[in-house]
């Protein structure tokens, strides 16, 4: 989680939250010298890093649910990845619907909230949890990174390019569109 924007100059700092599956600490801001990560290092240097945080679960959905709700898996009920049939279609369900999430709290505090990337918490077709900007995947897992289906503007479409570039490009577009007001970007 990175909080960016001057605290003294901005009463409500912008929040840019990266959540990455299977990411190690191989970045300069964590002491790595063999791999150059200047852009991440700059964000970390100008923002806030949580260096003593831990994951509540070793898999995706429960961890994301914990970060968004502040609840541990025994409280929010997710202990495994959300099943594919809950992502899209007639059985799709938002697994966080009964809880107040970070996106809802920030939206209610006047932030514009955006998601770019992997959701994997159910009902992927519909923006939820306070997010007004929503570009994601129809499923939870990633088997490939090129020529993949994505959800954008409530519609399923094919993305011919590299999806990591898409998530980044859409995140940058969100920031550029909302730079003049407090924003929360969940870039997953």
Q: What does this 3D model show about the protein?
A:
The N terminus is likely disordered. A hairpin with a 2-residue loop joins strand 5 and strand 6. The protein is α/β, with parallel strands linked by helices. It is globular. It contains five helices and seven strands. 24% of the residues lie in helices and 20% in strands.
| Spatial order of the strands forming the largest sheet | 1-2-7-3-4-5-6
Proportion of helical residues: 10-25%
Query: Helix tally?
Result: 5
Terminal Cα separation, in Å? 11 Å
The major beta sheet can be summarized as:
7 strands, mixed
Mean pLDDT: 90
Strand fraction equals 15-25%
Structure class: alpha/beta
Radius of gyration: 16 Å
Order of helices and strands: EEHHHHEEEEHE
- Unreliable runs, pLDDT <50, ≥5 residues? 1-9
Q: Tell me, what's the shape?
A: globular
Counted beta strands: 7
Secondary structure topology:
Layout lengths: L1 E3 L9 E5 L19 H9 L13 H10 L3 H4 L25 H7 L3 E5 L16 E4 L9 E7 L2 E8 H15 L5 E5 L1
Parallel strand pairs: 2-7, 3-4, 3-7
Antiparallel strand pairs: 1-2, 4-5, 5-6
Label this structure with key terms.
188 residues; alpha/beta; 7-stranded mixed sheet; globular; disordered N terminus
Question: Summed up, what is this model?
Answer:
The protein is α/β, with parallel strands linked by helices. It has helices spanning 38-46, 60-69, 73-76, 102-108, 163-177; strands spanning 2-4, 14-18, 112-116, 133-136, 146-152, 155-162, 183-187. β5 and β6 form a beta hairpin.
């Amino acid at each position: 989680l990175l909080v960016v924007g001057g605290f003294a100059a901005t009463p409500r700092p912008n929040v840019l939250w990266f959540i990455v599956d299977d990411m190690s600490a191989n970045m300069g801001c964590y002491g790595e010298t063999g791999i150059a990560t200047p852009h991440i290092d700059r964000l970390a240097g100008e923002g806030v890093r949580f260096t003593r945080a831990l994951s509540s679960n070793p898999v995706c959905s429960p961890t994301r649910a914990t970060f968004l709700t502040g609840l541990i898996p025994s409280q929010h009920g997710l202990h495994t990845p959300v099943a594919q049939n809950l992502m899209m279609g007639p059985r799709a369900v938002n697994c966080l619907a009964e809880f107040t999430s970070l996106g809802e709290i920030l939206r209610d505090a006047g932030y514009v909230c955006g998601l770019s990337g992997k959701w994997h918490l159910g009902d992927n077709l519909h923006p939820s949890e306070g997010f007004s900007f929503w570009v994601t995947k129809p499923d939870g897992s990633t088997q490939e990174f090129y020529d993949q289906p994505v959800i954008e503007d409530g519609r399923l479409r094919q993305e011919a390019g590299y999806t990591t570039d898409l998530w980044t490009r859409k995140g940058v577009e969100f920031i550029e569109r909302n730079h003049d007001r407090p924003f929360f970007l969940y870039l997953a």
